[in-house]
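Why does residue order matter? Because the sequence determines the fold. Keep that principle in mind as you read this record.
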Amino acid sequence: MTRTIGQHELSQIFQSAAARIRERHAVLSELDSASGDGDHGATMLRIADQLGGALPPGESAEPKAILHDAGWRILSVDGGASSSLYGTFFLGMAEAPECACPLDCPAMAAAFEAGLAGVSKQTRARPGDKTLMDALVPAIASLRAGADTGKSVGEAMQDAAEAARAGAESTSALTARFGRAKFLGEKTRGHQDPGALSMALLFEGFSIALTNKKETQ
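Structure:
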Protein backbone atom coordinates (compact mmCIF):
# COMPACT_ATOMS: atom_id res chain seq x y z
CA MET A 1 0.00 0.00 0.00
CA THR A 2 0.95 3.64 -0.41
CA ARG A 3 3.60 4.80 2.07
CA THR A 4 3.75 8.50 1.11
CA ILE A 5 1.46 11.05 -0.51
CA GLY A 6 2.55 13.63 -3.03
CA GLN A 7 0.80 15.77 -5.59
CA HIS A 8 -0.32 12.83 -7.72
CA GLU A 9 -1.80 10.93 -4.78
CA LEU A 10 -3.57 14.04 -3.45
CA SER A 11 -5.19 14.52 -6.83
CA GLN A 12 -6.28 10.89 -6.82
CA ILE A 13 -7.82 10.97 -3.36
CA PHE A 14 -9.67 14.21 -4.12
CA GLN A 15 -11.12 12.72 -7.29
CA SER A 16 -12.02 9.49 -5.50
CA ALA A 17 -13.71 11.29 -2.60
CA ALA A 18 -15.69 13.44 -5.04
CA ALA A 19 -16.79 10.31 -6.92
CA ARG A 20 -17.87 8.56 -3.73
CA ILE A 21 -20.00 11.54 -2.71
CA ARG A 22 -21.60 11.71 -6.16
CA GLU A 23 -22.47 8.01 -5.93
CA ARG A 24 -24.37 8.51 -2.68
CA HIS A 25 -25.70 12.06 -2.84
CA ALA A 26 -29.31 10.89 -3.18
CA VAL A 27 -29.01 8.94 0.08
CA LEU A 28 -27.60 12.03 1.79
CA SER A 29 -30.59 14.09 0.72
CA GLU A 30 -32.99 11.34 1.76
CA LEU A 31 -31.47 11.24 5.24
CA ASP A 32 -31.53 15.03 5.46
CA SER A 33 -35.22 15.11 4.55
CA ALA A 34 -35.94 13.24 7.80
CA SER A 35 -34.44 15.96 9.98
CA GLY A 36 -33.58 18.96 7.81
CA ASP A 37 -34.53 20.56 4.53
CA GLY A 38 -33.37 17.68 2.32
CA ASP A 39 -30.63 19.55 0.47
CA HIS A 40 -27.50 18.03 2.03
CA GLY A 41 -26.90 15.80 -0.97
CA ALA A 42 -27.10 18.76 -3.34
CA THR A 43 -24.71 20.74 -1.16
CA MET A 44 -22.24 17.86 -1.06
CA LEU A 45 -22.41 17.58 -4.85
CA ARG A 46 -21.26 21.18 -5.11
CA ILE A 47 -18.53 20.52 -2.56
CA ALA A 48 -17.46 17.44 -4.54
CA ASP A 49 -17.18 19.54 -7.71
CA GLN A 50 -14.89 22.00 -5.94
CA LEU A 51 -12.83 19.25 -4.34
CA GLY A 52 -12.41 17.45 -7.64
CA GLY A 53 -11.24 20.67 -9.31
CA ALA A 54 -8.67 21.65 -6.69
CA LEU A 55 -5.76 20.43 -8.83
CA PRO A 56 -6.42 20.73 -12.58
CA PRO A 57 -4.62 18.18 -14.79
CA GLY A 58 -1.14 19.25 -15.81
CA GLU A 59 -0.69 21.74 -12.98
CA SER A 60 1.93 21.41 -10.27
CA ALA A 61 1.76 22.43 -6.61
CA GLU A 62 2.87 21.40 -3.15
CA PRO A 63 0.36 19.65 -0.82
CA LYS A 64 0.01 22.78 1.31
CA ALA A 65 -1.03 24.84 -1.71
CA ILE A 66 -3.38 22.12 -2.99
CA LEU A 67 -5.12 21.77 0.37
CA HIS A 68 -5.33 25.54 0.76
CA ASP A 69 -6.93 25.85 -2.67
CA ALA A 70 -9.38 23.05 -1.89
CA GLY A 71 -10.39 24.75 1.34
CA TRP A 72 -11.10 28.10 -0.27
CA ARG A 73 -12.94 26.48 -3.16
CA ILE A 74 -15.24 24.68 -0.75
CA LEU A 75 -15.80 27.81 1.34
CA SER A 76 -17.08 29.49 -1.82
CA VAL A 77 -19.94 26.97 -2.04
CA ASP A 78 -23.35 28.22 -0.95
CA GLY A 79 -23.93 25.39 1.48
CA GLY A 80 -24.38 26.81 4.96
CA ALA A 81 -22.62 24.95 7.75
CA SER A 82 -21.41 22.11 5.51
CA SER A 83 -19.29 24.23 3.19
CA SER A 84 -17.95 26.22 6.13
CA LEU A 85 -16.90 23.12 8.08
CA TYR A 86 -15.45 21.24 5.12
CA GLY A 87 -13.62 24.30 3.87
CA THR A 88 -12.20 24.93 7.32
CA PHE A 89 -11.12 21.30 7.54
CA PHE A 90 -8.95 21.50 4.42
CA LEU A 91 -7.61 24.92 5.29
CA GLY A 92 -6.62 23.60 8.71
CA MET A 93 -4.77 20.70 7.09
CA ALA A 94 -2.86 23.14 4.92
CA GLU A 95 -1.68 25.05 7.98
CA ALA A 96 -0.01 22.02 9.58
CA PRO A 97 3.80 22.51 9.81
CA GLU A 98 4.24 18.89 8.69
CA CYS A 99 2.31 19.52 5.47
CA ALA A 100 5.16 19.17 2.99
CA CYS A 101 5.83 16.89 0.03
CA PRO A 102 5.88 13.94 0.28
CA LEU A 103 3.63 13.23 3.25
CA ASP A 104 4.36 10.04 5.15
CA CYS A 105 1.82 8.56 7.58
CA PRO A 106 2.85 10.60 10.67
CA ALA A 107 2.82 13.82 8.63
CA MET A 108 -0.55 12.96 7.13
CA ALA A 109 -1.96 12.24 10.58
CA ALA A 110 -0.64 15.59 11.84
CA ALA A 111 -2.26 17.39 8.90
CA PHE A 112 -5.60 15.73 9.54
CA GLU A 113 -5.35 16.57 13.23
CA ALA A 114 -4.77 20.20 12.28
CA GLY A 115 -7.88 20.04 10.13
CA LEU A 116 -9.89 18.66 13.04
CA ALA A 117 -8.56 21.41 15.29
CA GLY A 118 -9.86 23.98 12.82
CA VAL A 119 -13.29 22.37 12.65
CA SER A 120 -13.43 22.12 16.46
CA LYS A 121 -13.04 25.90 16.62
CA GLN A 122 -15.94 26.34 14.20
CA THR A 123 -18.48 24.19 16.00
CA ARG A 124 -19.31 23.25 19.58
CA ALA A 125 -20.48 19.82 18.42
CA ARG A 126 -18.56 16.81 19.67
CA PRO A 127 -18.97 13.04 19.26
CA GLY A 128 -22.37 12.01 20.55
CA ASP A 129 -24.14 15.11 19.24
CA LYS A 130 -25.23 13.45 15.96
CA THR A 131 -23.11 15.52 13.57
CA LEU A 132 -20.18 14.98 11.23
CA MET A 133 -17.94 14.95 14.33
CA ASP A 134 -19.20 11.45 15.09
CA ALA A 135 -17.37 10.26 11.96
CA LEU A 136 -14.50 12.75 11.83
CA VAL A 137 -13.12 12.37 15.35
CA PRO A 138 -12.82 8.55 15.36
CA ALA A 139 -11.42 8.58 11.82
CA ILE A 140 -8.59 10.89 12.78
CA ALA A 141 -7.93 9.01 16.02
CA SER A 142 -7.60 5.85 13.95
CA LEU A 143 -5.30 7.59 11.47
CA ARG A 144 -3.04 8.72 14.32
CA ALA A 145 -3.01 5.22 15.83
CA GLY A 146 -1.97 3.81 12.47
CA ALA A 147 0.83 6.35 12.14
CA ASP A 148 2.07 5.63 15.65
CA THR A 149 2.22 1.89 14.98
CA GLY A 150 4.13 2.18 11.72
CA LYS A 151 1.35 1.57 9.22
CA SER A 152 1.54 2.89 5.69
CA VAL A 153 -0.63 5.81 4.63
CA GLY A 154 -2.87 3.40 2.73
CA GLU A 155 -3.30 1.03 5.67
CA ALA A 156 -3.95 3.83 8.14
CA MET A 157 -6.45 5.49 5.80
CA GLN A 158 -8.31 2.23 5.35
CA ASP A 159 -8.63 1.94 9.14
CA ALA A 160 -9.73 5.58 9.31
CA ALA A 161 -12.44 4.97 6.71
CA GLU A 162 -13.75 2.01 8.69
CA ALA A 163 -13.78 4.10 11.87
CA ALA A 164 -15.62 6.92 10.09
CA ARG A 165 -18.22 4.50 8.74
CA ALA A 166 -18.76 2.98 12.20
CA GLY A 167 -19.08 6.46 13.67
CA ALA A 168 -21.64 7.47 11.06
CA GLU A 169 -23.66 4.32 11.65
CA SER A 170 -23.66 4.96 15.39
CA THR A 171 -25.58 8.21 14.88
CA SER A 172 -28.77 6.24 14.18
CA ALA A 173 -29.09 5.69 17.92
CA LEU A 174 -28.45 9.34 18.82
CA THR A 175 -30.68 12.39 19.26
CA ALA A 176 -29.67 15.49 17.32
CA ARG A 177 -28.40 18.42 19.38
CA PHE A 178 -27.38 20.86 16.65
CA GLY A 179 -28.87 22.49 13.58
CA ARG A 180 -32.48 22.29 12.50
CA ALA A 181 -32.62 18.62 13.50
CA LYS A 182 -32.34 19.45 17.21
CA PHE A 183 -35.92 20.77 17.21
CA LEU A 184 -37.20 17.29 16.31
CA GLY A 185 -35.68 15.71 19.40
CA GLU A 186 -36.38 11.98 19.72
CA LYS A 187 -37.80 11.88 16.20
CA THR A 188 -34.25 12.01 14.86
CA ARG A 189 -33.47 8.59 16.34
CA GLY A 190 -33.40 5.75 13.84
CA HIS A 191 -31.78 7.82 11.08
CA GLN A 192 -28.08 8.27 10.37
CA ASP A 193 -26.90 11.85 10.47
CA PRO A 194 -26.33 12.97 6.85
CA GLY A 195 -23.30 15.05 7.83
CA ALA A 196 -21.66 12.09 9.52
CA LEU A 197 -22.34 9.91 6.49
CA SER A 198 -20.92 12.48 4.07
CA MET A 199 -17.75 12.65 6.17
CA ALA A 200 -17.52 8.86 6.14
CA LEU A 201 -17.88 8.93 2.34
CA LEU A 202 -15.01 11.40 2.15
CA PHE A 203 -12.72 9.03 4.04
CA GLU A 204 -13.93 6.06 2.03
CA GLY A 205 -13.01 7.91 -1.13
CA PHE A 206 -9.55 8.63 0.25
CA SER A 207 -9.12 4.97 1.15
CA ILE A 208 -10.31 3.70 -2.22
CA ALA A 209 -7.70 5.82 -3.99
CA LEU A 210 -4.87 4.67 -1.74
CA THR A 211 -5.73 0.96 -1.57
CA ASN A 212 -7.51 0.39 -4.88
CA LYS A 213 -10.36 -1.24 -2.99
CA LYS A 214 -13.92 -0.47 -4.00
CA GLU A 215 -16.39 0.15 -1.19
CA THR A 216 -19.79 -1.54 -1.08
CA GLN A 217 -22.87 0.63 -1.21
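The chain has one domain: 4-211.
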